[in-house]
Amino acid sequence: MERALQRLFNKIGTPKDIAAIASTLGQVASIWTMCTELKEPFLVRELLSGVNGPAIGYHKDLLTFLEKCVHESPPTSVDKGGFVIVGYSSELDDLRNRLDESEEDMKKMQSTYREKTSECLSSAFSSSSSWSNFAGLLKQTEITGLKVVSTKTLGNFVEVDHSAAAKMVKFPEFVGVSSTGKKARYVTQELTTLEANIKQLTQAIVEKEEQIFEEISARILQDAKGILESAAALANLDVTCSLGLLAAQNNFVRPTVDTSVDFDVVGGRHPVIESFQAQHKKNFTGNDTSLGASQRTWLITGPNMGGKSTFLRQNALIAILAQIGSFVPASFAKIGIVDKLFSRVNNVLFFDVPVFF
After folding, report:
1. Three-state DSSP class for residue 350
2. Is the dihedral of CA 346, 348, 352, 354 positive or negative?
3. Which residues pair with 187 in a beta bridge?
4. In terms of CB atoms within 10 Å, which of 21, 165, 226, 285 comes out highest?
5. pTM listed for this prediction
6. Could you tell me which CATH number the domain at 92-197 has?
7. Whole-angstrom Cα distance, residue 270 to residue 251?
8. Residue 269 pLDDT > 80, yes or no?
């Protein structure tokens, strides 16, 4: 949500930013409701009350407002239109209805012009003395390939085959314009007026939606402080729950963290390699480490691919996990003060998969 809010604040936001905020607030509301029903753990109560940082808020009024005005899957930009829900703005709904009617009229123009240009066929047939002349009259009066075409550069026009162009002179309302090698093109006053009306309505809709977008953005920014606090609290909860789930699923233990220089680990494991081996039904053999004031250095030797780098990195990971407040992959761990980590880093621990950065 932080990025979406920043984009709205800098006037470069899109409807998708608003939808992202609305979607996340919906999740926050669900989490807030769920957390209020929990008595434990203590951390959840802290996040709700804001004891040790921002509290998760409900934002009920803002969420209700956004759900009534913005589609869940809006376009990527305001000028594409269509991000405002029907019913939010009566003025916008009226413009959309008028545009739909005009576009429907435009679709009907092709059949209307085909009927108009074939009228001479019926009049010619009615004046004929026998049915034997019908086929010849049909061929003489038929306007082949007539259709209404729309392009971004030329707009809307009537297009017929060049073989029928000579017959179009019978209809003065069709004014010839630029043609291609195979097609003759025409415009009419009716077509031009309808096209101008569609453009005007489309522009009016875009302007109205831009206005609504600014109103919605301003409403969101009014609650920006609370939204950011909820985002921070939710991130804290997410990280904590993820570490807790990882510990429960992988038999991590709670380390003892003190101010000594001890680094005692029993049955330490590399969490990434252990997870990889579990997928192939293999076990990871734990390693013990014991460093302290009386023995502060270990020199490890062994053949290539013997596990030296794995041992080095697993202890680095255990130190990091312990000092961020997580359980660690070991049977026992006592970690003192660690202010620096030095480790060989590359991407070839196993099968070119990077495991420590």
Report:
1. strand
2. negative
3. 175
4. 21
5. 0.69
6. 1.10.1420.10
7. 13
8. yes
Place of tokens 């807030």: 32
| Residues 277, 322 contacting (CB under 8 angstroms) | no
3-state secondary structure of 257: strand
Report pLDDT digits (tens) over 272-303.
888 888 888 888 889 999 998 888 888 888 88
Query: For residue 173, how many C-alpha atoms fall within 13 Å in the half-sphere facing its CB?
Result: 9
Give dist(CA 178, CA 78) in Å, integer: 34
The pLDDT-based confidence of 329 (bands split at 50, 70, 90) is: very high
Could you name the CATH architecture of 253-335?
3-Layer(aba) Sandwich (3.40)
Question: Position of tokens 């807790």?
Answer: 244
The token duo for 221 is: 């920014």
76-110 pLDDT, tens digit per residue, is 888 888 899 999 999 999 999 999 999 898 888 88
Q: What is the DSSP letter of 253?
A: B
Which residue intervals of 142-188 are DSSP H helices? none
- Of 99, 107, 109, 100, whose CA–CA distance to 203 is shortest? 99
- What does the DSSP 8-state code read for residue 144? T
Alpha-helical segments (H) within the chain: 2-9, 15-36, 42-49, 60-69, 90-117, 119-127, 134-141, 189-222, 224-249, 271-279, 308-323
CB count within 10 Å of CB 324 equals: 9
Q: What is the pLDDT of residues 196-242, one digit of tens each?
A: 999 999 999 999 999 999 999 999 999 998 888 888 888 888 888 89
**What residue type is 211 in one-letter code?**
Q
In contact, 229 and 54? CB cutoff 8 Å: yes
| 2-88+207-243 CATH | 1.10.1420.10
Q: Which regions of the chain carry the CATH code 1.10.1420.10?
A: 2-88+207-243, 92-197
